[in-house]
Amino acid sequence: MDDTNDSQNTLTRRQVVAGGAVGLAGLSGGCLGPIQNVLGLASASQVSLRVVAPPVDWDRRANAIAGRLVSRLEQVGIDARFPLLPPKQFREQVLYRRDFDMYVGTMPVGRDPDFLRSLLHSTHTNDLGWQNPFGFTDKTLDERFDDQRRQSGSQRTGTIHDILRTIANEQPFVPIATDNAIAAVRSDVADAFDGWQRVPLREPIWLLGIDPVEGAEPRQTFRVTTKNDLPTEQLNPLVPWISEFDPTTSLLYDPLARRYDGSIRPWLAREWSVDGAELTLTLRSDLRWHDGEPLTAEDIRFTYEFISDTSLGSSDADYPVPRFRRQASLVDTVEVLGQRRVRMSIDASPPVTPMALTLPLLPEHVWQSRTDVVEMRAGLTRAITHANTNPVGSGPMALESRRGGHTLRLRRFDHHPINRDDGSELADRFGPLAFSELEMLVTPSDLNMVEFLEGGEADVTVPRLDNELVSRIESKESLSLATSSSRTLYHVGFNARRRPLHTPGFRRAVAHLLNKARIVETVFDGYARPRTVPVHDRSWVPDDLRWDGGDPEVPFAGIEDELDIERAREHFRSAGYYYADGGQLVY
């Protein structure tokens, strides 16, 4: 009897303590300023945030969005700072060190919503690249991410709708807009080729879609200008923060399957079949690496093993490749059945399964020695940090020469299936390449890229031009304009590892400061689409989250583009924060 009473008394005391903790949390909404003041524990301090963004000459639009956001944060009483980071430092702080409060930038949006799993799953909070850079955690959402991988049809659609509603409610980041891909082409070059928009401009295989016009003068060298010098410095397809538009490593390295013409289709694979949880695949005949070595089923087995653990079991922990971890995680085992056949054990439903075939194949005889652990904390091996300046891939182009920071020259790999006149559907669709050489020229800015074309020093720009240059391009008879929709999402990212950004209420209050429609109209001149949720295909978006003149979940706290400051402040008060006499938002 006494033991029972003691137990009940102990339980009662624990409940009182727990209840008090819940009470404090409920009153403070994650911000203990009012309670601390009453108890005399601490003095309140103003909320202070750094919003990092790239400089104007790298991304004017991200810079402009950040400038507007900082101004609005200051209007609602937040001490906001706006440091500009060069591209390399921006990637390091956001995608590697996670050293930021908030940032404005771009990220690639996958065509299938399964990409959200690696972007937001709780298990990736300490990983690199676009694996949950926000430090966002939601265990229930984790389960839903796992569920959708094994579902099909309306069941999967319903799960995706639930996921998107949770994301919209918790706002781990604020989707702003997907921009239009814009490129300038010399008019004589545009007239000499067809198919400029056969493949969306910012897809890696964009240039594979063009064909020479019959009777036009053939071109040996195709000159592309870019302001991104990364491809001239390193050619490693495994780098976690490589651009979503990556024409270099995508032309050097090939997957088993690529997405084109609306679905994932065979590429280096000739065909595959799925029987339950098993996928059996056959390679095309006579495939070779750029160094002449045969590409076989053993290279497929090695690739999936290596991307799942780049230490190949030589360390106590696994060191997966961040950039392709999602695709590799769909495959449990790879069994070699012959020189050209493999059997894969797949942990996914039929709609998701083909995505497992979209990672780049790696030659075992080149990469098997790059297993040394370089940085244990970050999970890095030499496979990921190696510059790979002498790449050996199997893509339609091979490296000819490079000059770091200046130029990169690729040559056509005649042994590739699209360059062989073998009557295959792939050769008929894409081959042969319309040029023998591709030269990439690095320039300092978007304007310089266009000036290179005007001066006859280049043929086409990469499709990342600022929309402010459209009128200039259209006014020049010597230039033509190419545009298409893109999967590049401009967004505001939060570091949920830090106060007060760890609370959904605060993040939502910040989201209410952004007038997405006005940003699309003025910053992008209409060359963008506002987004409420981070998916590309509208068919995945539930009706209650579709854009209808405004964001249905976090509408702008103002009229036209004029912020209603009191209304905006009320969102922060509703989230549990409060204002000092001087109007500062404080803890």
UniProtKB/TrEMBL annotation:
PANTHER family tied to this protein: PERIPLASMIC BINDING COMPONENT OF ABC TRANSPORTER
Record-level Gene Ontology MF annotations: peptide transmembrane transporter activity
Segments forming domain Solute-binding protein family: 264-583
InterPro entries linked: SBP_5, SBP_5_dom, TAT_signal
Protein name as it appears in the record: ABC-type transport system, periplasmic component
Organism domain of life: Archaea
One BP annotation, GO: peptide transport
Name of one Pfam family that matches: SBP_bac_5
